[in-house]
Amino acid sequence: MPITIAPCGRELKVRKVGADDKVRKHLMELGICEGSTLTLLSSAGGNVIVVVKEGRLCIDRNLAGKILVA
Predict the structure, then answer these.
(1) What's 3-69's CATH class?
(2) Are 32 and 22 contacting, i.e. CB atoms less than 8 angstroms apart?
(3) pLDDT digit string (tens) for 41-60?
């Protein structure tokens, strides 16, 4: 499921990042890649806030829709 509809507060595992290579590389540098874990804090207001490793990231809703988690 896309991270935009995932339940808040749960640890999620990234299954696929469906962005182009440049964006995928940037997300990988931030810690979001296939097999990594993250926690969704909020998905209200058009943006998605996640905890990756020990930092918080705000991701645009369009890009967040391309990050599939389980």
Answers:
(1) mainly beta
(2) no
(3) 998 877 999 999 999 999 99
